[in-house]
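Morning F.,

Quick status update on the modeling queue. The single chain you submitted on Monday has been processed. Sequence for confirmation:
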Amino acid sequence: MNEQAMQSIVQAVVSKIKASDDITLSVAQAVAKKVRARAEQLGVKAVVAISNRAAHPVLVESMDDAYIASYDIAVQKAFTVVSLKMSTSTLKPLAQPGGSLYGIQFTNGGKIVIFGGGEPLKNSKGEIIGGIGVSGGSEEQDTKLAAYGKEIFEKGQYL
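Structure tokens below.
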């Protein structure tokens, strides 16, 4: 098989995955693996959660010695971004005193997270089909890791 044929096959697979209507376990595992590797580079012991289009967890992975509290936070970040259709960083200023969504973190059984580290995942049609939540580092580190996860998912770079 020549290189051009191989590239065509890879592109077809990536296009099919990106056009998907939901996050599969195998895709979630591949994205989480890349995010974990990046977290290791940053010295962060993170928890990575990936949810489907209904905001239910498809995958939750805790790196060795990650904070216990990071588990729920990562899951709730993945829930927040799908249920509100925006990143947790975008939500943060809206949820501050005087913001149009002030107090939203007290809704949905307290599952809404109003600080960085959560990103919606979109297919090639721009539809939100899942979310990623990362917790374990500083807000800045979690935000960078979630943004990285979103980027590699949307570009199909996790294969």
